[in-house]
Amino acid sequence: MIRLCIILIVTLFVTPISASDESLVIYGSRQQALMAPLLQAYQASRGVAVRYVQDKSDTLLQRLAEEGDASPADLLLTADIGVLEAAREMGLLQAKQSQLLSSLIPAEYRDPQGFWYGLSLRARMLLYVPGRIPRFELRDYADLSSSALEGRVCMRDLKHVYNQSLIAALLARWGEKRVRAWLSGVIFNLARPPQGGDRDQVRALAKGECDVAVVNSYYFAMMLDSDNERDREVANRVSRVWPETGVHVNISGGGVTHYSPHPQLAIDFLEFLAGFDSQRLFAELNHEYPVVAGVPVSHTLMRLGAFEADFRPLALIARQREKASKVIHDLSNTD
């Protein structure tokens, strides 16, 4: 049996899920607080019943695989390109083209065949404590391996999907030989064993446990905008650097499931999420960058300033993830 650690059915409907029901069924890893307003808006706009099942991404992939053609799921929504590519490779998604989505979402943030579409962006940024490190010593991801930062870098687990995605992006940019040399230097420069989440890296900076950290933009923005006074104070004590050779961005996105009972309805929902109002909600509720041009970012993200994103298609980067995992494994297990 599939072990479901956390199953949350958004309480728009409380009836059991059945593939025969005329409703849109979504499997998603995004939190209810983010998704509920979007689901309610879609239901009000279209008059369509929506059922949302929340769990961890790997559990959802396992569930889809085990359910096979009996799955009631129409759509998979998750928060990393690596997960979407894994779902595609496992045969859990179907190619579904949409003229509207292709016109709204830049090519680098969607699968060329239509297996998945990016819906919002988050950026992998560098943070530092002013006064403890000269600004000129930190300009790009490459600087994390500099001898000037020996014992001064904080990161979460290198095997975490956020860091795997960053290393996959660097493999596409630099090649394996340079990435291995770089990662060896980063590991040597760690102030402590990798631990905690992204927000814990910011807190470690404020405590003086390290001078530089690698963090996703939306975690930092959430701390800047937090109801927790301590988190706001901590976040305001550090400064950010946008890597000058191109910032690695990742997506939250979705794809129509392979055995979707209602594939057109699933595409309609994705098109709804790419609309101006939905994109604005993504930006305001979770401090993620809209994937559609012309939609304003949150005031908190405006404080972080503009950056130039890596131009390489995420589909290309995602296909480096197995190599990235091997590089991390090899170097993390070196005495």
Automatic annotation (TrEMBL):
The positions annotated for binding Fe cation are Y218, Y219
Keyword Nucleus in record = no
Q: Which PANTHER family match?
A: IRON-UTILIZATION PERIPLASMIC PROTEIN (PTHR30006:SF15), THIAMINE-BINDING PERIPLASMIC PROTEIN-RELATED (PTHR30006)
Upper classification of the source organism reads: Bacteria, Pseudomonadati, Pseudomonadota, Gammaproteobacteria, Chromatiales
Its keywords, alphabetically, are: Iron, Metal-binding, Signal
Is Cell membrane among this UniProt entry's keywords? no
The entry sums up its family as follows:
Belongs to the bacterial solute-binding protein 1 family.
Cite a single Pfam family from the UniProt record. Answer: SBP_bac_6
What domain of life is recorded for the organism? Bacteria
Protein name per the record? Iron deficiency-induced protein A
Provide the GO MF annotations for this entry: metal ion binding
What is one cellular component GO term in this UniProt entry? outer membrane-bounded periplasmic space
As recorded in Swiss-Prot or TrEMBL, the protein's gene is named: idiA_1
